[in-house]
Every structure is written in structure tokens, then in C-alpha cells.
């Protein structure tokens, strides 16, 4: 029969002095974590007055990957910075060209000029190219309500994004997963899948990987855990800070390291297998790798892949590890 502890009763054999010391150690740890988060508040928010230099990729990787294109479809300005760890690692380690397609510029018309300035600065920090549909405005009302109630307007968005894919000819596309809570994140998933499928049918290309990202709602079945070094995360942090207006409203940047540390806890078992040993690296991002073949989404081969922060990532080898028939 289990013994139930009562307030003030110590069952572990520790003396009251031991218990007080242990509590003080725990309290100091929690306060140190909070102090580290608060220390980030002193970093000035952007956009910076002078352009910031992006991290320089490996020259050998640039030569090898110069014909490889990655398109990151960001529902809002700042998503490319907060969830784009794998895209950034592919640019730095694989030499690929990354284009951020800003699906929307947010719903507030009065803030779009500011958000565009911040987005341009953030993409410079990351070394990403930038495409904004509809001139500098982005799409309006990218959500399932629009898809249901205004099919003609939705079809126009699909056509416009398909034309961007026709021009970019991506070898890999990122988009949020279909249950990522925020209505624009969810809408972006279905808009990208439809437009990418139309592009593949129109061009005869494919199949191509479509990697699903998470931010507002965790992926139910992530199959790829990507370790992130402190150096790579620092570049993401710098880029997120350039979105000064958004970070002032909600300090996503200050909490990004904690979120990515929790991803290591979760991904070690959700991707690596229940009961698996926890990974030793501190930060990670989780993704789900799928494939588009024409207008159909093709599921990957079973199993998960964990890539550490020092394990070089190349798009071709990554794709082969997930393609269903192993070819």
C-alpha cells in the first residue's frame, strides 16, 4: 500500500535542512532559466537600420547545390524565421537556394508596409530570396471558410501560386501541416497542396517532397527531427528580431529556444520510438515529410529519422530516406 505524503512530512529520509537546500537549488535553476529569457529583452528589436549580413554557406556546398531550389511557404511574416531551421540548414550545408513565399502579409492593412519592411530584413538575415504574391500585398483570406464560400476567389489564389511554382520550379516545398490551429496556417496548407499539385500536373514534374511544419499545434505524426546548433538558432533569432512589431506584441523570439528544447524531449521518443534514449543535443525542430505526385499526397515509408546538428543534411539523401519504394 502506497504511503501518502502529508504537508510538512518528509518521507524520503531527508532532514528538513536537506529539503530546504534541495528546494533552494531547484528555485535557483528556475530563476536562472527565467533570467536567461529576460536577458533577451535587452536586445533591440528590428528592423535594423543597416542591412545585416546572412550566414555564409560552405562554398563546396554552394557549388553542389546551386541548381537545387527550396520554396518555404510562410503563412505570415515571421514564420520563415521561427520554423525555418531545416530550410536554413539546407542553405548552409547543402548550398540550396531558398525562396520564401509570403502567402499573406497579415490581415491588418495598416500594418502591411511595416511587415513588408521587417520581412525583407529578416530574409536578408537568413539569406533567403523573397516572393510576395499580388505585388507586395500577399493573398487575402487564406482559410477554409474562403475555400468553402468563395470558390472562384480561392481558384484565383491557386492559379497565382501555381504560377509562382511554375517560375521557381522547387525541388522541395515547405508548408504548415493541416491541423496547425491558426486558420491561415491551415488554409496555407491546403492552398499550397492544391497549387503544387496543379504545378506538377502542368509541368509533368515530380514526385516532389512536401515537408509539413508545425508552430501553433504539434504534428500528430512527425517523422523527421532536425537538430539545431546554437549558432543556427542564433541566426533564426536574429531574423525573428527583425520582425520587431510582431515580437513586441508577442515575444516569440524569446521563447523559441525553450520551444525547441522541448522538441528534443518530444521528438526523441515520438520520432525515435517510445522509450528511446533522449538525444543529447539541446535544440530541434520537428517536421513531417510527405510527397506530392501530381495532385495526390503520397505517404512516406514508415519510421522516423533523427538528424543531429552536426550531421550534414543534403536534400537528395534526405528524400531517399523517406521515399516509399526506397529509390
Task: Describe the fold and architecture.
It contains twelve helices and nine strands. The protein is α/β, with parallel strands linked by helices and 327 residues long. It has a single domain (59-320), classed as Rossmann fold. Strands 1, 2, 3, 4, 5, 6, 7, 8 and 9 form a nine-stranded mixed β-sheet that branches. Helix 2 crosses helix 4 (85-94), helix 5 (112-126) packs antiparallel against helix 9 (230-241) and helix 9 (230-241) runs antiparallel to helix 11. The N and C termini lie far apart (57 Å). The model has no long low-confidence stretch (mean pLDDT 93).
Summed up, the domain count is 1
Q: Could you state the oligomeric state of the chains shown?
A: single chain
What sort of overall outline do the alpha carbons produce when their principal axes are compared?
Answer: globular
Strand content: 5-15%
Largest sheet: 9 strands, mixed
How much helicity do the residues have? 40-55%
* CATH fold descriptor: Rossmann fold
Rg computed from alpha carbons, rounded to a whole number of angstroms: 22 Å
Q: What is the level 1 CATH name?
A: Alpha Beta
Q: Please state the average pLDDT score.
A: 93
CATH superfamily caption: LmbE-like
Regions with pLDDT < 50 over 5+ consecutive residues? none
Describe the secondary structure blueprint for this structure.
Elements: H1 16-39, H2 59-65, E1 69-74, H3 79-82, H4 85-94, E2 97-102, H5 112-126, E3 129-131, H6 144-149, H7 151-168, E4 172-176, H8 183-203, E5 208-213, E6 224-228, H9 230-241, H10 244-249, H11 252-270, E7 283-293, E8 296-298, E9 305-307, H12 315-322
Parallel strand pairs: 1-2, 1-4, 2-3, 4-5, 6-9
Antiparallel strand pairs: 5-7, 6-7, 7-8
Amino acid at each position: 500500500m502506497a504511503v501518502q505524503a502529508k504537508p510538512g512530512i518528509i518521507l524520503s529520509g531527508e532532514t528538513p535542512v536537506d529539503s530546504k537546500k534541495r528546494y533552494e537549488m531547484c528555485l535557483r535553476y528556475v530563476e536562472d532559466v527565467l533570467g536567461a529569457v529576460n536577458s533577451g529583452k535587452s536586445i533591440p528589436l528590428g528592423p535594423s537600420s543597416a542591412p545585416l549580413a546572412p550566414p555564409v554557406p560552405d562554398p563546396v556546398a554552394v557549388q553542389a547545390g546551386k541548381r537545387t531550389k527550396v520554396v518555404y511557404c510562410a503563412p505570415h511574416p515571421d514564420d520563415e524565421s521561427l520554423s525555418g531551421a531545416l530550410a536554413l540548414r539546407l542553405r548552409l550545408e547543402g548550398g540550396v537556394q531558398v525562396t520564401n513565399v509570403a502567402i499573406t502579409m497579415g490581415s491588418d492593412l495598416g500594418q502591411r508596409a511595416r511587415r513588408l519592411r521587417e520581412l525583407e530584413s529578416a530574409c536578408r538575415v537568413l539569406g533567403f530570396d523573397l516572393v510576395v504574391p499580388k505585388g507586395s500585398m500577399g493573398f487575402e483570406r487564406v482559410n477554409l471558410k474562403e475555400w468553402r464560400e468563395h470558390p472562384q476567389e480561392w481558384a484565383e489564389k491557386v492559379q497565382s501560386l501555381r504560377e509562382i511554382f511554375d517560375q521557381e520550379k522547387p525541388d522541395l516545398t515547405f508548408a504548415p501541416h493541416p491541423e496547425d490551429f491558426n486558420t491561415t496556417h491551415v488554409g496555407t496548407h491546403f492552398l499550397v497542396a492544391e497549387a503544387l499539385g496543379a504545378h506538377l500536373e502542368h509541368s509533368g514534374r515530380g514526385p516532389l517532397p512536401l515537408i509539413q511544419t508545425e508552430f501553433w499545434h504539434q504534428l500528430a505524426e512527425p517523422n523527421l527531427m532536425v537538430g539545431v546548433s546554437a549558432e543556427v538558432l542564433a541566426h533564426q533569432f536574429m531574423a525573428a528580431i527583425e520582425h520587431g512589431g510582431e515580437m513586441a506584441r508577442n515575444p516569440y523570439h524569446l521563447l523559441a529556444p525553450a520551444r525547441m528544447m522541448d522538441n528534443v524531449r518530444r521528438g526523441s521518443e515520438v520520432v525515435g520510438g517510445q522509450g528511446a534514449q533522449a538525444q543529447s543535443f539541446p535544440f530541434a525542430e520537428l517536421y513531417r515529410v510527405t510527397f506530392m505526385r501530381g495532385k495526390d499526397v503520397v505517404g512516406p515509408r514508415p519510421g522516423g529519422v533523427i538528424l543531429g546538428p552536426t550531421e550534414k543534411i543534403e536534400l537528395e539523401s534526405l528524400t531517399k530516406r523517406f521515399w516509399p519504394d526506397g529509390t
